[in-house]
Amino acid sequence: MIAKNYPPLIIRKYLYLKTVLGQLIQTRGQLGVSRRGCSSMNPHLADCGETTGHYQGHNPIMRLSTPLFALLAVVLSAADRPNILFILTDDQGYGDVSAHGNPILKTPNLDKLRGESVRFTDFQVSPTCAPTRSALLTGRHEFKNGVTHTILERERMALGAATLTEQLQKAGYRTGIFGKWHLGDEAEYQPNKRGFDEVFIHGAGGIGQSYPGSCGDVPGNSYYGPTILHNGRFVKTSGYCTDEFFAQATKWIEGEVAAKRPFLAWVATNAPHSPYNARPEDAALYEGKGLGKDTENFFGMLHNIDQNVGKILAKLEALGVAQDTLVVFMNDNGGTAGVKVFNAGMRAAKGSPYMGGIRAISFWRLPGRFQPADVKALSAHVDFAPTILDLTGTTASATMQAQMEGRSLLPLLTAKVGQDVAWPDRTLFTHVGRWGNMLKGVDPEVGKYAQTSVRTARWHLVSAAPIPQPGQKAGGKKGKSPKSVAPAPQSPADIKQAQANWQLFDLSVDYGETTDVAAEHPEVVKDLIAKHDAWWKECRPLMVNENVAGPAENPFKVLYREQMRK
Fold first, then answer.
1. What's 226-267 look like in SS3?
2. Up-side HSE of residue 140: CA atoms within 13 Å toward CB?
3. Which residues of 492-518 are buried (b: 16+ CB within 10 A; e: fewer)?
4. Which of 176, 280, 369, 443 lies 20 to 30 Å (CA to CA) from residue 5?
């Protein structure tokens, strides 16, 4: 019998094609299909029959049939490829889910999704947003994509990097992004040039943001009725930003389902990133709880996200594709305004190499294929692209294969509850970057040992050294370069001094990172520092955006002025 754990659509396609295959065999007569040969078409499908055989002679009818059988093999393989709905929130923390123990925030739809998903409980991302996004798309650490900051052209994903979406496009997937991009606002860096067919985005790292150079959104843009770049043309919306992104994604999904095309919908909200502007009715849900205005609005923004998640999942059900759609939900970095309420016992928050800055939510739902369970294996954002490629049977380009550092999570996702899956220990690297802050011309070597960490399943080596910055006068305006009063430290002595700040934590007994055990395990510290230095050496030639000149005006501003005559 065909395996019962496959989605109904796949089973229906399989049975139909099996019937067609059987009829061809009967009419052609001289072909036998071995179990092994059938499985070569699609090794995931069971019951290919017990008969064995081979081509006999050179029957011209059989030669005519061969292309048809090849086509059937391709269609069978395509039937096993799920749609993908990827939801990525901005600045939500691991603790900002009620099912994770948050005592105030209510997220019923996320809780339900969590209960239906494989849940990676030790999933690592980057300390800030653009770095995580580049790692998700490329399968490698952000520094190797040229992304070492969130502004100053250092948020641009290197043009030489291959992307997951480019691979899926070539495999017949339709790809759409809705919301935040933040990997380059110049034309050649935008998502339509990086593998996305449908583009509905704001500029910069947040709605209304503007910084010197290329990183900037439409001037004066707002969370309410934002102006959005839709496939190269600016459009004025009328609703709340998160509602608009989910609504556009839903509309697009409806079209792809109607056209019977597999799709990847990448829904990347700018919420709940600051400024904390929730819909008034959402923020009102958290008034009177002693949270303060920022957290009231932050939780209100998360409530709105939760409601939209519920709506889009319901739409998948209504369209009849929920069983055939992988849903992945993540956040991009550690928590922010909600940390003071609940941080799941972790140390620090966004912008830090401690666990509170890099541990993320990671829910993966594929009904019938993935059994809901907690998975403790050390996993990370760099695993996302390899996993999607593996799951969809997509062949990666030579460039993509060469650059990917992550692992496919598919063995963990498809394992039965309680099943042991081999998962060798690994070493992961975190670095906040951002040396020089708002100033260019700063040598990356200054920041080598600042706000960085090295992880294995058990150990976490963290450099608590502050990021060396040029001296600054207080009160610099947002988006403006502050006046420098002293050069940044540049000497080797200054750099090496940061090594004195290494701390070692045994996460197997101290996930909250309360006790530094570096003195008790000097050999571990030495080993992990050596691995860090080797990794840094690999990264340095690939940091292609350091100190490059940006445009005189934000590209979004220029394009908006040209299109709107403003």
1. CEEEECCEEEECCCEHHHHHHHHHHHHHHHHHHCCCCEEEEE
2. 23
3. eeebeebeeebbbbbbeeebebeeeee
4. 176
User: How wide is the angle at C-alpha 507 spanned by C-alphas 505 and 511, nearest 5°?
Assistant: 100
In this prediction the pTM is: 0.85
| C-alpha distance from residue 419 to each of 44, 411, 515 (Å) | 19, 10, 33
Facing residues of 175 across strands?
264
- Residues 6+ away with beta carbon under 8 Å from 339: 93, 95, 349, 356
What structural domains and CATH numbers belong to the chain? 8-78 (no CATH), 82-413 (3.40.720.10), 428-542 (3.30.1120.10)
Nearest in space to 87 (alpha carbons), one of 333, 329, 310: 329
Q: Determine which of 99-113, 137-151, 312-326, 435-449 has the lowest per-residue pLDDT on average.
A: 435-449
Are the beta carbons of 141 and 539 closer than 8 angstroms? yes
Other Cβ atoms within 10 Å of 220 Cβ, number: 10
CA 356 to CA 347: how far, in whole Å? 5
pLDDT score, position 540: 98
Q: Enter the tokens of residue 370.
A: 């993935």
The amino acid at residue 517 is V
**Model confidence over 173-205: pLDDT tens digits?**
999 999 999 999 999 999 999 999 999 999 999
> At 355, is the secondary structure helix, strand, or coil?
helix
d(CA 363, CA 249): 19
137 three-state secondary structure? helix
